[in-house]
Amino acid sequence: MTDPAASRLARLTFGVIALGFVGGFAYGLLSGLRFDLFVATMFLFPIVGALITSQQPRNTIGWILLAIGFVWMLVVVTGVSVEVWKGLRGLLLALSSWLWVPGIGLIGTFLILLFPDGQLPSPRWKWWARLCGFALVVPSVALMFAPGNYVDEGYPNVVNPLGLEFLESFIVIFFGFIALIPICIVGCTMSLIQRFRRSEGQERFQLKWLAAGRAAQLPCISS
Questions:
Q1: Of 115, 104, 139, whose CA–CA distance to 221 is shortest?
Q2: Euclidean distance between the first and the last CA atom of the chain, given in angstroms as a whole number
Q3: Which tens digit of pLDDT belongs to each residue from 113-141?
């Protein structure tokens, strides 16, 4: 893909994300639905991603930031849609109940692991990147096709229409992979510390910027 094509795709992606966020929050405000502050702050990621890709269309970090924004935009849109299209509530919940996994996981793993140049700290981190991908994909798939209802989402009478009964015997094992996510986040944080110790100049400044941004989010996460 050429730089101009990548730039156009980035602008289009950000436009879709912005429309989803603004439209979803506007409808929610008018209809009495509420989104917490944490979800609202997720719009900051695609904003920064759009700024980066406007100057460097192939920048990996820029695209990861846009991907994070796209996932949380889907959370907002499906959250509204569940209340609007009640006849499709089961399907919408099945397609969205797992979005928190990549939404949180990408922030804690690949954004940190590849920051700031889009490259791994060293080749030996390749296996860790694969483990992070595994930790995000398996729970996402398990949550999408898990049989049962959505009591945790506040809809105890809604059953997953995509639920596969034969997975019931293995679902505890699949959900156990969720425990890999915090482990992967800790490992990626260690890679960031290692990278910071070896950094200097502009790279060190960028790493300080990332640390400041994560610190600013902590009050939102705790609330």
A1: 104
A2: 41
A3: 998 888 998 899 999 999 999 999 999 99
Q: Which residues contact 139 (CB under 8 A, 6 or more apart)?
A: 98, 101, 174, 175, 177, 178, 181
The Cα–Cα gap between 98 and 75 comes to 10
The predicted structure's pLDDT at residue 209: 67
Distance (Å, whole) CA 110 – CA 128: 10
Residue 120's H or E segment, with its range, is none
- Provide CB contacts within 8 A for 215, sequence distance 6+: none
**Cut 0.90: pTM above it:** no
Residue type (1 letter), 82:
V
Rounding to the nearest 10 degrees, give the CA dihedral for residues 110, 194, 119, 101: 0
Burial class (CB within 10 angstroms; exposed 0-12, middle 13-18, buried 19+) of 220: middle
173 CB neighbour count, 10 Å cutoff: 11
Spans in the chain with pLDDT lower than 70:
199-202, 204-205, 207-223
- Alpha-carbon distance of 62 to 47, in angstroms, equals 10
